[in-house]
Design a protein that fits this description.
The protein is 74% helix and 0% strand. The protein is mainly α and 88 residues long. The protein has one domain. The two termini are 24 Å apart.
């Protein structure tokens, strides 16, 4: 089974999206176990979310972190752009 370049782009971006959603769920429901997987999700998504958190000025003390939502929106736009470039 072979994947096209477009399929690979979609798989990569959807994987990041799923990991970001899992991170949101883990932060909202801290009693959910996960141990090493929880650490993996945090370590894998932090390099993506940190620039957005710094850009919107998320300091300590603010209860609502909007960086995952902004990151997913930007990633969606980048995914669309890459797919458009691949298929044009």
């Amino acid at each position: 089974m072979f994947f096209s370049a477009g399929d690979i782009v979609v798989i990569v971006f959807k994987s990041f999206e799923i990991l970001i959603i899992l991170r949101i769920l883990f932060s909202m429901l801290p009693f959910i176990g996960g141990g090493d997987f929880k650490v993996f999700v945090h370590d894998f998504t932090e390099p993506i979310l940190r620039p957005f958190r710094l850009t919107i000025g998320m300091g300590g003390g603010m209860g609502l972190d909007l960086s995952p939502i902004i990151a997913m929106f930007i990633m969606y736009q980048v995914e669309k752009l890459i797919l458009q470039l691949l298929y044009s």
